[in-house]
Amino acid sequence: MNRVTLCIGVLFILALALSLPGWLSEEEIKVDSQTEEAWIPNYQASKMRSTLYDKSGKISHQVFAQKMESFDLLGFTLFKQPSYLLFAQSLHPWKVSAQEGTLYEDQRIQFETNVEITSLDEQGYIQVIRTHFIEVNLATKTMYSDQLVEIVGPNYVINSNGFSANLETQKYELLDHVKTVYQPSIQR
């Protein structure tokens, strides 16, 4: 063996010997206390009622819930049995009720389990929308669902696998139409 090979070998063994204790020692597992704190609600409310106004002072939406928990670190608020009144530019609001709701910081609210959207306009073309999931964008006043949807009007029932709606323009789009039942009313 020549000197260069011997020096490289000695340096390699020296480097291995110095780093071996670091490889063999077990890393101490650190629990992130912020992660645990994130799952503790910042505040809670029972039988909550809240009214929010837009810049011009008109009611934008009202929220009622049996229970509410806000998680600031996670960026959302949970609702149990929410009832949400959403006011569009039209005179009549929409009422959205469900078993559960989640409001995100970007002004989206997702409703789940036994969702029912009711138009408070008795003369409206659509009276009730039922589904298991719907997402409402409060900023744009739009709704979206990719679940089975039942839309009930004065003389018809429409079933679809998903829909989207704009509450301001009153435009509705069925994503996958399944069936429509029309029963005209009898005029006397």
How many strands?
A: 12
Distance between the termini: 114 Å
Largest sheet, order of strands side by side?
Answer: 2-3-6-7-5-4
CATH fold title = lipopolysaccharide transport protein A fold
**Poorly predicted sequence stretches spanning 5 or more consecutive residues:** none
Q: What is the strand content?
A: over 45%
Q: Tally the helices: what do you get? A: 2
Descriptive overview:
The chain is built from two helices and twelve strands; from the N terminus they run H-H-E-E-E-E-E-E-E-E-E-E-E-E. It is mainly beta and 188 residues long. The chain has a single domain, classed as Sandwich (lipopolysaccharide transport protein A fold), CATH 2.60.450. The chain has a six-stranded antiparallel beta barrel. The longest helix has 22 residues, at 3-24. The radius of gyration is 29 Å and the shape is elongated.
Write a concise synopsis of the structure shown:
The chain is mostly beta strands and 188 residues long. It has two helices and twelve strands; from the N terminus they run ααββββββββββββ. A hairpin with a 5-residue loop joins strand 1 (43-53) and strand 2 (59-71).
